[in-house]
Design goal:
Chain lengths: 200, 658
């Protein structure tokens, strides 16, 4: 649940981009980072290997200013996609207010998507969170690739969207659908805005 | 001052200007509503101003509501908090013309969208025009209520475009002409040719140039002027970009933050977040407002809740709301308790103020000290059940005056009457009538019980609690006060209590079986107080009373319609109501035993002939006489007549016969 600190008059939402390796999670954050005015964004922290694979996680803080008297912050995280970084994923997932599951639309990555999606549900369950109770948006990335290489949104909906959550076709590299995804998730998260006692 | 004619200068805006003119001239054309749509700085607000100005020029008394969406939302919420939401709606509805600017900002105020949709419906129904200006097409306004969007698109939409160079030139010239300052015409010409994104920028640049010209001795040249204002290149077209198209070839790390599209994309996201957060925060504010209205409407002081609305941005309302509700529950419980213990305190202000919960608790604690509940009047005695006649009319009149609260009616009544005349019935009947009027608590008891209560008190604290308990009664009704004749302590307390209650104008009703003058052993002060009240006698039942009472007693029996029997009882001497009851009961029982219907003959047989039965001779005491005793055992008779007591006519006859 998003944190509302009445003492400090702050609202902080933690959004996590989840998905298999190389599906475009970091690309999403990079695009957002590039589109946010400087005074609104913090430094994007990215720990990556030499081959640009996320080693630990990406973190992009967004300062959205004072809204209705509350300093509003969004914290965007990505998880490392590779299978062997599950401990990190679980760590990043802790306290998430919403999750974007980035699906690699390439047909050949179908199994990786399924495995990662199952991994998301398992990791949430480990934390006592029912995926049905968590704001979730599916992003079908790389829809700009040739049609013969990818599954279209309807096919991906059949495979992943059995809970009829919001799904968004995207081309994160060029930004198509990136902010739409973020807007969809933030809308879901803000609907659940609730009171939590200020941190002691 | 805006002028509709300036909008006619731009051919693209003539439709909008014509529609605006029709509204301003109140032609009655059904635009319902007129939606003015145009990019920022195209002059939407000016057009609304112009409509208002033109309408006022023609009808000075006309009432126009001109406001932006933010102002509308703020006023509406304030009205809601003050409990005047409906009044504000009515104000908007009643205005001859409503000019609503910055519609796109309404997406941040979702709670107000319903108000605007209702308003459009109602105003259309009432034949009143509404003009709405928006910087973005209604269909592009994410977060806009579907019903409102539909209402808006059902109206007439006119578009405002940026004026072309020729129109700009004329607008700028008119601006110059409308003031006292001047600017070379070639500078105005050059300015109108420059490329600014909005008309607002042109007028702003014009003001800068005019100010510069004022301070400069040499006239401005077009070149200097353009350099001065840094005339920019061609303006980007708002909302012309296809949102679904990729934002460029640049990679994710490449786009510059100052890129217009980038800012728009982030701005749209930010706008949605703002709307979401505002909605949630406003929901709390609404909750607080509703709580203020609810509890305030129930008479509770809502200062604590109102404080939440005063501070900038809401504090955490949940603990305050739940705490307030808990305090109200506690207050209600305390008020209910004190209603029983001390109704006179139940209306105290502290029971309506959750901030004075401590004081309310103290008050209840004090009331609890008053002790056990008081004796209530016996419910079976009702004044309506009394048979009225001359014998009791004085009493009943006094009682009615007391109950009616007659202006000069004395609050102290003393009913004097022998045993069985119905004093207790009247006393408890008065008590029940007072209770029915809401007077309470009542202390209605026998004087002996009063004295016994007092005698049972052992300590000073008990006595104080007992006094406190009686001091708050709404009325004191004491039966048989003559029985207190030998209870000095009870008399003392009664005197004290009577004084207190009299000062509080609380009813005091006493009965006594003996006339006040003949009461011995009563404190003279108390006696004087009794005599100062309305002393009314309750006499033995008269014929009218007895007839009424008999009919009531015979009702439901085989003799209920026997007028002769009722008349017999009414004519028969009866010292008291109780004696009449006994006689009727006796006849009815005898009739039942003989399995015959009650009749006057049976009544006479049962009641009058019973005296013929042999009576035991007097064994003690001298017979009543004139008082002069005979000198011997009847041997010498005095000259005075000897008088024998003849208990009945029958005995006399038998004696004479002997």
């Amino acid at each position: 649940m998003p944190l509302v600190n009445f003492t400090a008059r702050e609202i902080t939402c933690k959004l996590v981009y989840y998905g298999p390796g190389r599906c475009g999670k970091t690309t999403n954050l990079q695009y957002i980072h590039g589109r946010v005015p400087e005074h609104r964004r913090g430094n994007m922290v990215s720990l990556a290997t030499q081959s640009d694979r996320t080693l630990f996680f990406d973190f992009l803080p967004l300062e959205l200013g004072v809204i209705s008297g509350f300093t509003t912050r969004f914290q965007l995280y990505t998880v490392p996609g590779q299978v062997y970084y599950n401990a990190t994923r679980r760590l990043v997932l802790q306290g998430a207010d919403g999750v974007v599951f980035v699906v690699d639309s390439q047909a050949r990555r179908f199994d990786d998507n399924v495995e990662s999606f199952q991994n998301l549900q398992e990791n949430l369950l480990d934390q006592g969170i029912d995926v049905r109770q968590l704001p979730l948006v599916l992003q079908y990335n790389k829809q700009d690739l040739p049609q013969d290489l990818i599954l279209n949104p309807a096919e991906l909906d059949d495979a992943f969207n059995f809970r009829a959550v919001r799904s968004q076709p995207a081309d994160a590299l060029h930004g198509t659908g990136v902010f739409e995804t973020l807007k969809a998730l933030s809308g879901l998260v803000l609907e659940r805005l609730a009171v939590r006692p200020p941190a002691s | 001052m805006s002028d509709l004619e300036t909008f006619l200068l731009e051919p693209a805006n003539r439709a909008a200007a014509t529609a605006a003119q029709a509204v301003a001239d109140a032609t009655g054309l059904p635009f319902a509503p007129l939606l003015v749509q145009g990019p920022p700085g195209s002059g939407k607000s000016d057009l609304l101003d112009a409509i208002g100005t033109r309408l006022r020029a023609r009808h000075p008394d006309v009432r126009i509501e001109q406001l932006g969406a933010d102002v509308l939302a703020e006023r509406y919420r304030t009205a809601l908090v003050l409990g005047k939401g409906d009044a504000y709606r009515a104000t908007l509805l009643a205005a001859e013309l409503v000019l609503l600017d910055d519609l796109e900002r309404l997406v941040r105020h979702r709670d107000c969208q319903g108000l605007v949709a209702d308003l459009l419906d109602a105003r259309r129904g009432a034949g009143r025009e509404t003009v709405v200006a928006t910087g973005r097409p209604v269909g592009d306004l994410d977060g806009m209520d579907a019903r409102l969007a539909r209402r808006l698109t059902e109206g007439t939409t006119v578009r405002l475009a940026m004026p072309g160079a020729a129109a700009r030139r004329e607008i700028l010239r008119r601006r110059i002409a409308g003031g006292t300052r001047t600017l070379p015409s070639e500078v105005v010409e050059a300015l109108s040719e420059a490329e600014f994104p909005s008309m607002r920028d042109y007028t702003g640049a014009l003001s800068r140039l005019v100010a510069f010209q004022e301070a400069s001795a040499a006239p401005l040249t077009p070149g200097d002027a353009m350099a001065l204002i840094g005339a920019p290149g061609p303006p980007p077209m708002p909302w012309s970009t296809d949102a679904s198209a990729p934002p460029g070839d640049a990679g994710p790390g490449a786009p510059a933050p100052d890129d217009e599209q980038a800012i728009d994309e982030f701005g749209a996201f930010l706008s949605e977040v703002e709307a979401g957060v505002s909605e949630q925060v406003d929901r709390w504010r609404r909750r607080v407002g509703e709580a203020v209205l609810r509890w305030g409407g129930e008479g509770f002081n809502t200062r604590r809740l109102e404080a939440l609305l005063v501070v900038e941005g809401p504090g955490d309302p949940e603990p305050v709301l739940s705490g307030f509700e808990a305090d109200v529950r506690t207050l209600r419980a305390l008020a209910a308790e004190i209603e029983t213990l001390a109704p006179d305190l139940a209306g105290a202000e502290v029971f309506r103020d959750p901030d004075q919960l401590g004081s309310a608790r103290e008050l209840v604690e004090q009331a609890r000290g008053r002790g056990v509940p008081l004796s209530a009047p016996l419910p079976q005695y009702r004044l309506d059940d009394l048979a009225e006649g001359p014998a009791c009319r004085t009493v009943l009149q006094a009682v009615r005056d007391l109950l009616a609260g007659a202006p000069r009616a004395t609050q102290l009544i003393v009913i004097v009457g022998g045993p069985g005349l119905g004093k207790t019935h009247v006393l408890h009947g008065v008590g029940n009538a007072l209770a029915a009027k809401g007077v309470g608590p009542l202390a209605c008891l026998n004087a002996q019980a009063f004295a016994a209560e007092l005698a049972s008190l052992r300590t000073g604290e008990e006595l104080n609690a007992w006094r406190l308990r009686y001091r708050w009664v709404g009325a004191l009704l004491l039966d048989d006060v003559h029985l207190m004749a030998r209870e000095p302590r009870a008399q003392e307390e009664l005197l004290r209590l009577t004084t207190d209650l009299s000062e509080g104008q609380r009813p005091l009703v006493f009965t006594t079986g003996e006339a006040l003058e003949s009461l011995t052993g009563l404190d003279p002060r108390l006696l004087t107080r009794f005599q100062g009240g309305r002393v009314v006698p309750l006499r033995p039942p008269d014929r009218e009373m007895k007839l009424a009472m008999t009919k009531r007693l015979l009702a439901g029996t085989p003799a209920s319609q026997d007028a002769g029997l009722a008349d017999y009882f009414a004519g028969r001497p009866a010292e008291s109501i109780r004696a009449l009851h006994a006689a009727v009961r006796k006849v009815l029982d005898e009739a039942a035993a003989q399995q015959v219907a009650p009749s006057p003959a049976l009544a006479r047989e049962v009641l009058d002939l019973e005296g013929l039965e042999p009576r035991p001779a007097r064994r003690s005491g001298a017979p009543r006489s004139s008082g002069i005793l005979s000198p011997g055992l009847g041997l010498v008779k005095s000259r005075e007549k000897m008088i024998e007591e003849w208990p009945s006519v029958a005995e006399q006859l038998i004696a004479e016969f002997k």
